[in-house]
Design brief:
alpha/beta; 4-stranded mixed sheet; 3 helices; 8 strands
């Protein structure tokens, strides 16, 4: 067996509209086709891939999964990401990975899910980020 890529992340939420809007605004994901499951949910796409699945849960159901510490995405367009986060007052921190020098932008969604978006070293170098 050889793994190719991360297929998707499934996040449980009590406010599916809020989370869908946040991922659309911050990461540019778009809601798209989702099979007709009996549960309430949305699939959020980048291009043709539904990489974030949202599942709405009832108030009495547990929402978070303490074992899901974070998920990660790769991207380009570091300056526009930083601009967007700054404009919207969303806290973030950056981490430069030793040796391979990718720059990770760490942030948290409105439901408390942690994620980081990884950018090529050349983009971070161009902005003087260490």
């Amino acid at each position: 067996m050889e793994l190719n890529r991360l297929e998707h992340v499934n996040l449980r939420t009590r406010d599916i509209g809020r989370l869908e809007s946040w991922y659309a605004d911050i990461l540019g994901l778009k809601s798209g086709y989702r099979p007709p499951f009996t549960t309430i949910g949305r699939w959020l796409y980048t291009g043709e891939y539904p990489i974030v699945h949202l599942l709405e849960v009832l108030d009495q159901e547990p929402c978070g999964d303490p074992t899901n510490e974070h998920f990660a995405l790769s991207a380009t367009g570091l300056q526009s990401m930083i601009n967007k986060l700054t404009e919207r007052g969303i806290p973030y921190r950056t981490v430069r990975i030793p040796e391979i020098r990718f720059l990770q932008v760490h942030l948290t969604d409105p439901d408390g899910n942690n994620l980081h978006v990884d950018f090529p070293p050349e983009e971070a170098d161009a902005l003087g980020l260490e």
